[in-house]
Amino acid sequence: MRNIIGGNTSTRNLWLADQMMNIFMDNKAWLYTLPPLVSGVIFTYLRLLQDHVRPNLKEFGEKEVTFVIQLIRERFSDVLTLGRDFIRLLQAVARIPEIEELWQEMLLSPSTLDPTFSGLEQIMKTRTPSKFLVSRITPSMEKKLEVST
Predict the structure, then answer these.
(1) pTM of the prediction?
(2) How far apart are CA 59 and CA 62, in angstroms?
(3) What is the pLDDT of residue 31?
(4) Staple 52 to which of 24, 61, 115, 125, CB 3.0 to 4.6 Å?
């Protein structure tokens, strides 16, 4: 997943994002046995939605929205580990109707998503673990950063 580049809508990058999503959708039972991976997938695809909900990528973006919303709703306990950057990512795509609906649910009836979820304040008090932030840096960029430090 680290090779899927945010902000890049090239054919190769879209193909990779789509193939990875297909693997996760086809192997959902396996994915759900790995909560850190579920969290990472949600984090990655929420970031990618910012680039993929454009008119020229409509079909692709709709598929991603459906996938991410399903993951979030079915595995909200894994979302809670993402911390405040989850909120930042949601804000960036808040105008998507399905995301807007999720926002309303988070604000007005948070316990319907997860019995332990008390509201946005709970997530905002949680720092995003660095492993999720690092997961959005490509391996080649990580090498460049290591050399420069």
Answers:
(1) 0.89
(2) 5
(3) 97
(4) 61
